[in-house]
UniProtKB/TrEMBL annotation:
Pfam families: PaaX (PF07848), PaaX_C (PF08223), PaaX_M (PF20803). InterPro entries: PaaX-like_central (IPR048846), PaaX-like_N (IPR012906), PaaX_C (IPR013225), PaaX_trns_reg (IPR011965), WH-like_DNA-bd_sf (IPR036388), WH_DNA-bd_sf (IPR036390). Residues 197-284 form the Transcriptional repressor PaaX-like C-terminal domain. Gene3D superfamilies: 1.20.58.1460, 3.30.70.2650, Winged helix-like DNA-binding domain superfamily/Winged helix DNA-binding domain. This is Phenylacetic acid degradation operon negative regulatory protein PaaX. Residues 108-179 form the Transcriptional repressor PaaX-like central Cas2-like domain.
Length: 310
């Protein structure tokens, strides 16, 4: 007779049915949240065993892993008939960059400084280069406040220079630091926030997250089985990651009062730590099996979501 699913397992199954995750995106969530802090190496069979219970079949997982190798996230090694996958240097940089948004969130303080990117004419391929640059800047949370002028109150100049280098146009845009002089009668840049960033849609996503994942908080008043805890942790982080990586991360003083992102982040962190120990037991058993490169948990993990409550 099959074991009866736990309350947590049933709720996770319901969430998966309502909003099934994409295979490649779920693999990235696994790499960034669970594996990077354990050395970043795992057998292909381990990836399959960890993620198949989340509704992704083996064929899709294999395809997703191969694509991550092709895109430079992972490096592959053959060991007889088995394949070991290791986060590449590029993969480590990308996961580390995303971690600030995922675990730390927007700054509580803001000194009023802005990072600006100004786009003069970019030559014969101006249109395609501008479109690509706009896409990359928007991904990093920049908004266009005037034709050819992008601004962000939180991103540093290094981020903007990295984007220009990546696109091969480091000398075709201006990266500036600025502070508006609205006190002299001008329009404050911060007043443009509702027009430049779609905060209403983002607020709706945070509210939906709290409604959708909130019941897990109560369910976890009881101890969770390791396999269920791991599945819930991956689904939690995957759902959270899809929102916060599209959040411009405006500093708290620029956000509306009663911003729902604050409550959603607090909820996510609380659920995350309730799941953590049991999920790590399952991860150790699966990803650590016959894997000499699976390392002990790194200490910086315990700073996630403001730090683990004692």
């Amino acid at each position: 007779m099959a074991n009866t699913p736990s309350s947590l397992g049933r709720y996770v199954a319901r969430l998966l049915k309502d909003d099934p995750p994409r295979a490649k995106s779920l693999c990235v969530s696994l790499l960034g949240d669970a594996l990077a802090c354990h050395g970043g190496a795992i057998w292909l069979g381990g990836i399959i065993e960890l993620l198949e219970p989340l509704g992704i079949n083996e064929r899709l997982l294999r395809t997703s892993v191969f694509r991550l190798v092709a895109q430079g996230w992972l490096q592959a090694e053959r060991h007889g008939r088995r394949s070991l996958y290791q986060l590449s240097e590029l993969g480590r940089r990308r996961t580390a960059h995303a971690s600030q948004r995922i675990y730390d969130g927007p700054s509580a303080q803001w000194n009023g400084d802005w990072t600006l990117v100004a786009l003069p004419r970019l030559g014969n391929n101006a249109l395609s280069e501008r479109l690509e640059l706009r896409r990359e800047l928007t991904w990093e949370g920049f908004a266009m406040i005037a034709p050819g002028l992008f601004a962000h109150p939180q991103a540093d100049a290094h981020t903007a220079h990295e984007i220009l280098e990546k696109l091969g146009i480091p000398d075709k845009a201006l990266v500036l630091a600025g502070r508006d002089l609205a006190g002299a009668g001008g329009l404050p840049i911060a007043s443009l926030a509702p027009q430049c960033w779609n905060l209403d849609a983002l607020a709706d996503q945070y509210r939906h997250f709290s409604d959708q994942l909130g019941p897990l908080d109560k369910l976890l008043d009881e101890p969770a089985e390791p396999a269920d805890a791991f599945a819930a942790r991956m689904l939690l982080l995957h759902t959270w990651r899809r929102i916060v990586l599209h959040d411009p991360q405006l500093p708290v003083p620029m956000l509306p009062e009663q911003w729902p992102g604050h409550a959603a982040r607090e909820l996510c962190g609380r659920i995350y730590w309730k799941l953590f120990d049991a999920s790590e037991q399952y991860l150790d058993a699966v990803a650590g099996k016959d894997n000499e490169r699976y390392t002990p948990l790194s200490d910086e993990v315990y700073a996630r979501f403001g730090g683990r409550a004692v």
